[in-house]
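If you are new to this repository, start here. Below is one unmodified record pulled from the training split, so you can see the exact layout before writing a loader.
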Amino acid sequence: MLPEDLMLLFLDEETGRVLMDTTSIHNALAGAVLLELVQSGRVAFDEDGKRLAVVDPTPLPNEFLQESLSRLTKPMKPQQAVEKLRIHVRDNVMAQLEGRGVLSVEKTKMLGIFPTKSYVIQDVEAVSEIRDAVGNVALGHRAPDERTGALISLLYAVKGLHKVFDGDKREMNARAEEIAAGQWAGIAVKKAMEAVQATIMMMMMVVASTVAATSVSSS
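And here is the target side for that same chain:
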């Protein structure tokens, strides 16, 4: 699934180290979950094109996606949907990956005091496959499809493309901007992707502004 692929991109394939901050990861993963629900046909925009709503309540075979769908209890703006889907999203996605044997989660303590988690990649081939597929598109070696286009657009929304792939930051961002604006998906998914991307970027700006204001007030 899209959230699983995205989480693997956020991990160093050799060390299992997380390559981005928690806020960015949660926002991007929540966006990926929302796109999965749109792609499944369970969620769509209402007639005014401003709110997302459940249009098909048929249970999904994946428990994680079904639980995520159950959180969208009424029509809501994309930002509200992303905020609801953020809750425990990283842990839930990691549980999915662990259940498939892609990685294992180990609980440790930082400095021997603070509880933390480390990730050990078990299926190196699976991680390499997704990194190669997305990396080739990000570097301009091949055109995006619906899967790689969505992943690159989500990484671009959280300013993370250059953090998970080696390469010229300016060139990769320019390429990602073109991909985000491209026609690699169907109308419904594309509209949802644009809304998710705008939502994530706005949420990231709010966080950055809050951090900046806090730094100024404390100095």
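Two things worth knowing about this chain: The CA atoms of residues 150 and 193 lie 7 Å apart. The longest helix spans residues 187-218.
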